[in-house]
Amino acid sequence: MGDQSAAASGGVLTRRRFFEGLAAFGGVSLAMAGMDALGFGFSSAQAAPPKLEGDAKGTKVVVLGAGLAGMTAAYELTKAGYTVQVIEARGFAGGRCQTARKGFQHTDLNGNDQTCDFDEGLYINHGPWRIPYHHRSTLHYTKLFGVPLESFVNDNDAAYVYFEKGEGPLKGKPVRKGEIAADVRGYAAEMIAKAASKGQLDAPLTAADRDLFVAYMINEGRLSPTDLAYTGTEGRGFAVHPGAGVDPGPGKPSTPYSLADVLHSKAWQVLSSVTGYEQQRTMLQPVGGMDQIAKGFEKRVGALIRYSCVVEKIKQTDKGVKVTYVDKFGEQDTIEADYCVCTIPLSVLKNVDADFSKPFKAAMSGVAYAPVNKIGLQMKTRFWEENHFIYGGHIYNDMPGVGTITLPSTGWQGQKGVLLGYYAFGNEAVKVSMKNPADRAAFAVAAGQKVFPEYADNFETAFSFSWHLAQFNLGGWAEWSEDGRKDSYPVLCQPDGRIYLAGEHLSYLGGWQAGAIESAWQQIGRIHARVQAA
């Protein structure tokens, strides 16, 4: 329902086009079909790891990568009696499950060297940062390891919507999401109710059905029962808040934006009657940072991990696997095992000298990895709470390279806070990542200043991360095409000799920690079945 649609109808946005536009952006059936076509998954398929019953028979397994997939495999295999050794390229465990806090260091492939200097207790989850309630595999380990959780506010009607590319008086103006939601629903309900009351709907309705439907629309849109007009609702907020006595007393309700202004602002594009299944309005996060999950694993399998060891070669025979790596001192070493669980991202693995079969090597090239940027901005005051009364949630916008600005869901009413200054994917993320860290921060602050007048004055320090510039990731997550899912994905899900791949890239929960965990569960189950059958 963009400019072309308006032009096609002589610049007039008809009711039919309005309803079609709402359906296009919020239609459940369309969203479901689109997610299926793109290979996006829904809830976790498993709630607990496989039961590895029977003797491990002295089997040795080498695990490549100490991310959540690798540590899941190591933890469960060790419990079942396997001898496990983990090889990790970084000096710490967790893979993409990282949290930047004071002292955290990172050098990207462009040579940008950063050391996080946030105040003690402040942090940014520059990797995964939220957990849906139905990712039962992730929640299995947070409960098992005693990792405390708190709410992550994934949607907030008090947060702002800021659109520069729309038209009319709302263009380039921060507007409360709840105001837009109330007005769009109110006007939509008004038009539907008026049409229904006159019997102008296509579907046949009895008189009783019609009266009930109109009553529903009155309730849905907070309409006047007499003339079915939408004139605002208490839920969208107040111009003068109610209080004590007679002044302010009942307060003064806010005035709705006009229907034309709401539509032409394009701010309604952020609305959905039903949120995406993996984007629940309230989600979960570990208290103190997402890396608390990684630390929970590390407490249990850390002794099995050889850190700062970069894999150079993976070779195998009918009887075993041999992995050659270089340690932090530049010394080359090898490890031999009966089987290998390899969790190295395919973007990195395809550059490793490995004697995979030709079909396996070809399949590894069937997936791309997403360029992804994040930046944490430390602010000297929590002005979004103090002045704007926004506690958590996202600032939706259409500023190139910014994606989403997100306010922290922890530390409420404290003195300082770290917010997510941008979270962008694709080509726009690549452009911003080419800047040095200082310029990235300046870019993020300039964007936020358009929404909050206090932004620049409160900014203190920043930490940015570009996953496509991270040496041992080369991308945020795997992005499978429809053909890739059909042709390459099934090949990689099966072992290549004695080598089994695992990670978020081998799941339909791409980019989520649950995908990494459940992929590992599936592969260790296959290894154990093979050992038992031998």
Quick structural summary:
This protein has 534 residues and is α/β, with parallel strands linked by helices. Helix content is 33%, strand content 19%.
Helix content: 25-40%
Distance between the termini: 61 Å
Strand order of the largest sheet: 11-2-1-15-24
Number of strands: 24
Roughly what fraction of the amino acids lie in strands?
A: 15-25%
Number of helices: 18
What's the story with the biggest beta sheet?
5 strands, parallel
Structural class category: alpha/beta
Rounded mean pLDDT score: 88
Overall geometry: globular
Radius of gyration: 27 Å
Give the low-confidence spans. Answer: 1-43
What does this protein look like?
The protein is an alpha/beta fold and 534 residues long. Helices cover 33% and strands 19% of the residues. The protein is built from 18 helices and 24 strands. Strands 11-2-1-15-24 form a five-stranded parallel β-sheet, covered by helices on one side. A four-stranded mixed β-sheet has the order 7-6-19-20. It has a four-stranded mixed β-sheet with strand order 14-13-12-16, with no helix packed on it. A hairpin with a 5-residue loop joins strand 3 and strand 4. Helix 6 runs antiparallel to helix 7. The N terminus is likely disordered.
